[in-house]
Amino acid sequence: MRPFTLNYAFPRSRPTVVTPYRFDASRQLNVLPDGRPAVSDPDLLLAAGTTASTAGSKTHFDD
Length: 63
Description:
Strand content: 5-15%
Largest sheet: 2 strands, antiparallel
Structural class: alpha+beta
Number of strands: 2
Number of helices: 2
Strand order of the largest sheet: 1-2
Helix content: 10-25%
Radius of gyration: 17 Å
Distance between the termini: 48 Å
């Protein structure tokens, strides 16, 4: 039997999230598809809030 509150505690499906940047290990920073550093895109920073990388140290920020 499923408790009633679990119908509201967990979303029914996860939203699809597309990250518009990727981590470039050779440059040690997040880059956009065109090769520019992700921190150079103000619209991305406004939408995401940060481009912190999860690669390596959890306290290292690329911006």
